[in-house]
Design goal:
By secondary structure, the protein is mostly beta strands. Helix content is about 5%, strand content about 35%. The strands form eight sheets. Strands 12, 15, 16, 17, 18, 19, 20 and 21 form an eight-stranded mixed β-sheet that branches. Strands 7-4-9-10 form a four-stranded antiparallel β-sheet, with no helix packed on it. Strand 5 (about 80-85) and strand 6 (about 90-100) form a beta hairpin. The chain starts with about 20 loop residues before the first strand and ends with a strand.
Length: about 425
């Protein structure tokens, strides 16, 4: 690997993925957007973000900054102009001085929340120049002109079904996608002593930047091919990525029919987020009632018990809670401990919705094969593998913390020919 990589291993015998250091920015208000640089580091400092541009790091509700310039029509004239900046229910309004010292040019620093906004300028006591200008700190060499007499519509993002004109084209929710949030724990990496999942696979640099499910033969509907960035996989702490999961929206009347899918990222605290590592998952489908299922490459998937109501902001539910109803019987495993939870059953190495220890197409043989097939005490480390059930970056068949025992326990622990089936429609 690159000798400058954070996880450089001089004893490695083959190439592996490299985690590079990156520049972090202070994020004192925790809104995911940083302000002042904190320097380059392999690990994320406390109260920091990997993106910059926050114009007010003391207020999580605002982070979009720009400067508004208004000019008099004649540089020899001086006076004031009235401005009205509106973003949803937020209004910034006042009179801007156009002084002689700047030949009738007035500057107004503005800091607002993300999303669309309008700027309306009206003349007070002096004719105004036909164009006004915006200057964004991200592009300090280019002014953005707009007609002074016409309201300016600013901001831009992907349209989602939230009742807001996200892409600032004057229409709300056109061709939109559902913004869906969910929370789930995987049994394999879950630590009942901390209430978090271990992120050993990520810490070893093994989580791929592109979703793995297409390569497993999974047929996406509308989704597939999602990718993330090394900077997202470099995040540590509670929001560190554990692995990729698949979100499935299923038909409200026939939940066996999958109508939309998308790969997403699962964090240590159970949050399922989009590929940017922070936002809710944007599903490529319009409004309607749907069942929501969450699936993982070597754990059983789980489906909610009933279709979600047609709300604008979708909630896939907290599937870590026993109070959250799910489809089928014993769809999740109850884990005791200091932080008890409901987790997805581990051990579906073949990703075929069945835990099987013996017989054809079982989940045990792939573990033995992965370590060589002859010496059960062998191990396989440093690879992103289905057989790594406990997700610690190592495939192990025998001994402490092995992957085979989890499979045997989850089919009952005493009858090796028993099977357990996923509770999916």
């Amino acid at each position: 690997m690159d000798v400058n990589a954070c996880n450089h291993d001089p004893s490695a015998t083959c190439p592996g993925p490299c985690t590079q250091a990156q520049l972090w920015f202070a994020d004192n208000d925790g809104d995911g957007s940083g302000s002042t640089p904190l320097g380059i580091s392999c690990t994320q400092p406390a109260n920091s973000a990997f993106s910059s541009g926050d114009c007010d790091d003391t207020n999580a509700a605002v982070q979009t900054g720009f400067t508004l310039f208004i000019l008099t029509d004649d540089p020899a004239d001086v006076g004031t102009a009235h401005y009205l900046i509106q973003q949803g229910g937020t209004i910034i309004e006042g009179d801007l001085d156009l002084p002689a010292a700047t030949e009738g040019i007035g500057e107004l620093p503005v800091c607002i929340g993300p999303g669309c906004y309008t700027i309306t300028i009206t003349q007070n006591n002096v004719p105004l120049f036909p164009e006004s200008y915006l200057l964004f700190p991200s592009d300090p060499d280019n002014y953005v002109p707009f007609l002074t007499d016409d309201p300016y519509l600013g901001g831009s993002s992907t349209e989602i079904c939230d009742g807001i004109d996200n892409d600032c084209n004057g229409l709300a929710d056109e061709g939109c996608a559902i913004a869906l949030s969910a929370r789930v724990f995987l049994e394999g990496p879950y630590n009942a002593g901390t209430g978090l999942m271990n992120d050993g696979v990520r810490a070893l640099g093994l989580v791929p930047t592109t979703e793995p499910y297409t390569g497993l033969g999974y047929t996406h509907v509308g989704g597939g091919g999602e990718s993330t960035s090394p900077s997202v996989l470099a995040i540590t702490g509670n929001d560190a990525v554990v692995d990729w999961v698949v979100i499935e929206l299923r038909d409200a009347l026939d939940p066996s029919v999958v109508v939309s899918t998308r790969s997403a990222l699962l964090q240590r605290d159970g949050d399922v987020v989009d590929t940017d590592g922070s936002n809710t998952v944007s599903m490529p489908i319009g409004q309607g009632n749907y069942h929501v299922a969450v699936r993982h490459r070597n754990h059983f998937g789980v489906d909610d018990a009933g279709p979600i109501l047609p709300e604008l902001q979708r909630d896939g539910g907290d599937l870590t809670l026993s109070a959250t109803a799910t489809y089928g019987t014993n769809a999740r495993k109850s884990i005791p401990g200091t932080f008890p939870t409901q987790a997805l059953w581990a051990g579906d190495v073949t990703f075929n919705k069945q835990l099987k220890y013996a017989g054809s197409n079982n989940d045990r043989d792939p573990i033995l094969t992965a370590i060589g097939g002859l010496v059960p005490t062998n191990t396989l480390s440093g690879q992103y593998r289905q057989e790594d059930i406990n997700m610690n970056g190592q495939v192990k068949y025998a001994g402490s913390a092995n992957d085979r025992d989890i499979l045997l326990q989850n089919i009952g622990g005493s009858v090796p020919t028993a099977v357990r089936n996923a509770q999916l429609p």
